[in-house]
Write a structure and sequence with these properties.
Layout: H1 2-6, H2 12-33, E1 44-50, H3 64-72, E2 74-80, H4 87-96, H5 100-103, E3 109-112, E4 117-120, H6 138-144, E5 149-152, E6 168-170, H7 178-190, E7 199-204, H8 208-214, H9 220-241, E8 248-253, E9 259-260, E10 266-268, E11 278-282, E12 286-291, H10 296-303, E13 310-314, E14 333-337, E15 342-344, E16 354-355, E17 369-372, E18 380-386, H11 390-397, H12 409-412, H13 436-461, H14 468-485
Parallel strand pairs: 1-7, 1-8, 2-18, 5-6, 5-7, 10-15
Antiparallel strand pairs: 2-17, 3-4, 8-17, 9-16, 11-12, 12-14, 13-14
The structure holds 2-acetamido-2-deoxy-beta-D-glucopyranose (4 copies) and zinc ion.
């Protein structure tokens, strides 16, 4: 091209266009480079869940660390999570993008009639891979694509799923402090290039535990929430100390919210139906009832109009919008308590002051969602999303092809930093790992335009001199080299 230019074979305007063309394509290349596919440039993502952190807790007490993420990143005001709004189903939805009926972890306590097995989050039954293998969690997918992952206590992350554990993980142990979990995550992200993890998941049991014990309305919850904000501050600080804060995309969310219960609001099933007629599978507020052989109609008829504070569904009547029907592990009858109500067999036994699991469209059941990092927009508030949309978003950030899922990248793409850097001169260039590329591009554009002008003026003024072609070549050569080196 340059040879063609130097032979004087083009008009000034065409020459200018021809000179700028490679710069435009270079600029495009840099934009894509932000999300490089290979080795050390693979984008990083850390997903953190504070169990039971309701969406509005951030407004209840000063939460400066949440605020800083909101200011530097994105907030989603309303996240519709997966039904039932319990811990295991929702944590698996976050890393699979699937509703519970499809990923198969339909409750914290389950019975599978085909396996003839029971699952309880309280026992080692969770280590039976078969419960988890109706879906493929993101850490398995990223590892199959040549990436690495690290997991600190995320539900299911210490279970062998489709033949794999996360590249790095901790065996579940509730006694391991948040700080220790963070230290391990930081180690894994900071490892030498080929060993560093690309995707991390981090789980903390609070404020769920306190929410159950105290009830979310308790003034004592204020201190618990402030404590969670301090934990987030610890993580931010450790990321900064390790030089990871500007590189790692950080998503802070939760599985569900929490609502206040009242001791007067108890439904006692023993008043309506004999225990001999059914097996009690999952606990309040969405109770799984497995009627004894041939007793389905009898149990259903006894329960359906028994108490106005609960709704009783046969499996095939469960409302479609819950996406909670098509799985063997969903029991033939489910009872859903109204918000604030507890279903028990009788009044003896432990009673909690706070609970979750209710209808996922209730505001009280919904989690917090904030995120920041090179992939995310800044100081941006989005009205609503579904928690299943997070999975395709994370796959996009990590440049991983998503497995079939129930989310939609289109629904949440506006959370991402726009593909094209805004050209408004008043906004300073975004400072991150990749931001030098457009600056260098613009600098070279200016140099080349100036170079062209000099070249053009010379061409016009020295038109008659025989040495023109040679001189122009001398002048243009270094520019061409710089172009190639970028
Ligand atoms: C299911 O397992 C239990 C023991 O856990 C056993 O007593 C029962 O017979 C099994 N049922 C079937 C249908 O295999
Ligand atoms: C859990 O962690 C605690 C504290 O580090 C330790 O004392 C305990 O042995 C661990 N339990 C298991 C089962 O590893
Ligand atoms: C309530 O149920 C428990 C077993 O769960 C039983 O031991 C107790 O006797 C029952 N109480 C009443 C008042 O029926
Ligand atoms: C959710 O996604 C899975 C996998 O693509 C699909 O089989 C299932 O039908 C979807 N569920 C809904 C409600 O669309
Ligand atoms: Zn809980």
């Amino acid at each position: 091209m340059l040879g063609f230019l130097l032979r004087g074979g083009c008009s000034p305007l065409v020459c200018l266009w021809a000179l700028l063309l490679p710069l435009v394509s270079l600029h495009r290349l840099n934009q894509h480079g932000r999300r490089g596919h290979a080795g050390m440039n693979r984008p990083k993502l850390l997903l953190l869940s504070f169990d039971g952190f309701r969406w509005d807790y951030v407004d209840r007490v000063p939460t400066p660390n949440f605020r800083s993420i909101m200011n530097e990143g994105v907030t989603v005001e309303q996240v519709e999570n997966a039904y039932i709004t319990k811990t295991f189903p929702n944590h698996y939805s976050l890393v699979t993008g699937l509703y519970a009926e499809t990923h198969g972890i339909v409750a914290n306590e389950m019975y599978d009639p085909v396996l003839n097995r029971s699952f309880s989050m309280e026992t080692d039954s969770i280590y039976d891979s078969r419960w988890w293998e109706e879906a493929v969690p993101l850490w398995v997918t990223i590892q199959k694509a040549g990436g690495r992952s690290g997991a600190a206590m995320w539900p299911g992350s210490d279970v062998r799923i489709h033949g794999m554990y996360p590249t790095q993980f901790l065996q579940y142990n509730a006694s391991i402090s948040f700080e220790t979990r963070v230290e391990r995550i930081i180690e894994w992200f900071s490892a030498p290039n080929e060993e560093a993890v690309d995707f991390g998941v981090l789980y903390w049991e609070e404020p769920d535990e306190s929410g159950h014990n105290l009830g979310p309305q308790s003034p004592l919850m204020d201190e618990v929430i402030a404590g969670i904000d301090e934990k987030l501050g610890f993580l931010i600080n450790e990321l900064k100390k390790a030089g990871l804060y500007e590189k790692v995309n950080l998503i802070v969310t939760s599985d569900h919210g929490m609502t206040q219960l009242f001791t007067d609001n108890i439904i006692e099933l023993d008043e309506y139906v004999s225990r001999d007629l059914y097996t009690w599978v999952d606990k309040s507020p969405v109770v799984g009832i497995l009627p004894k052989e041939g007793k389905l109609e009898e149990v259903y008829n006894k329960l359906v109009d028994a108490n106005p504070n609960m709704v009783v569904y046969k499996k095939e009547e469960i409302p479609k919008h819950f996406h909670y029907q098509h799985n063997n592990r969903i029991m033939p009858i489910i009872i859903e308590a109204k918000e604030g109500w507890t279903v028990m067999q009788n009044r003896t036994g432990p009673f909690m002051l706070g609970n979750h699991g209710y209808d996922n469209t209730l505001r009280s059941m919904q989690p917090v969602f904030v995120a920041r990092g090179p992939a995310f927009r800044q100081n941006y508030v989005k009205t609503s999303m579904r928690s299943v949309d997070l999975y395709p978003l994370m796959c996009h950030i990590l440049s991983i092809r998503p497995m079939p899922n129930n989310g939609s990248l289109l629904n949440v793409k506006d959370l991402l930093y726009p593909e094209l850097v805004p050209t408004t001169p008043s906004t300073p260039p975004r400072v991150n790992q990749y931001s030098y590329a457009p600056v260098v591009g613009s600098f070279i554009s200016v140099v080349m335009v100036l170079g062209f002008l000099v070249f053009y003026i010379r061409q016009v003024t020295l038109k008659q001199l025989p040495s023109l072609k040679h001189r122009s070549r001398e002048m243009s050569q270094p520019l061409l080299q710089e172009d190639l080196h970028l």
